[in-house]
Design a protein that fits this description.
With 356 residues, the protein is of the alpha/beta class. The protein folds into 3 domains: 140 residues, HUPs (Rossmann fold), CATH 3.40.50.620; 58 residues, SH3 type barrels, CATH 2.30.30; 82 residues, Elongation Factor Tu (Ef-tu), domain 3, CATH 2.40.30.10. Helices cover 25% and strands 29% of the residues. The chain is built from 8 helices and 17 strands. The termini are far apart. Pfam families: tRNA_Me_trans, tRNA_Me_trans_C, tRNA_Me_trans_M.
Amino acid sequence: MMRVLAAMSGGVDSSVAAARMVDAGHDVVGVHLALSSAPGTLRTGSRGCCSKEDAGDARRVADVLGIPFYVWDFADRFKEDVVDDFISSYARGETPNPCVRCNERIKFSALAARALALGFDAVATGHYARLSGGRLRRAVDADKDQSYVLAVLTAEQLRHAVFPVGDTPKPQIREEAANRGLSVAEKPDSHDICFIPSGDTRAFLGARIGVRRGSVVDAGGTVLAEHEGVHGFTVGQRKGLGIAGPGPDGQPRYVTGIDADSGTVQVGVAADLDVWTLTGERPVFTSGAALTGPVECQVQVRAHGGIGDGVAELRDGRLVVDLRAPIRGVASGQTMVLYRPDADGDEVLGSATITR
């Protein structure tokens, strides 16, 4: 029997995860993370994973399960480590994934550290991923797999993690919740960025970064338009560029590069988005063992999609992947995650933040 802290977001996945830990005979305590000091600034309904009614939903599930329940205030930490990081990353012309940062710095750094300090053995969450033999793997439900956003975790953090729903397809999780009498059984899945209530990322960033004018240029350096800040653009973007129609060759134009220092947004054709080599800093190897030589792998650069085959190796402390075929629309600030297929399902080898 373990002492388990169940992170309860108020959604169906974390609710069933907590229930399964209780069924397994563990000593379970539920905790909900309050991530905003002003509740109205987080999304409501299905629009985010930490909206203001979620604490109530989590508490009701804990009551049904008969486990103690607490709300922990992580608002300051969340603002500093996730929201402020998101804003400053966009200001540098990068495209970050805030869910990756939240898992890394809040759910498995701050939360797990507090749990261990309080004498818990493990933290259980509703993430769709699997752990076997200390190795992080994709979930059985490929459509819901969240191993990508967990690939920034260290071997030590994973040693104290449990993902009870990763071996089950999502429809069966909903059915199980209904059979258990949990009110969240039909609750819509969370999506989008929880700290942008309007859903308008450009407006959210503009209000915090301010106007920093620059130019939209083509490959030859010709100025096509003016803009109010590089934070309004991401590599691969096609709409909202402020330019009239396609290029002289009739092909649509996309953002192909962003230089925050000069305020320049470069556009080109789709083929200009092809990337053959990825370089990443701050590599993390989820097994605890760094790569010792070139390794054949799959690499994923977005939470959903952006997958290719390649050869990865460490060069001067950086993680470099040479791709077999190009991946399109890769931006600095994104996380690249390495996978190795094996008999037990795709194993996560590690991750790094893309710099080039």
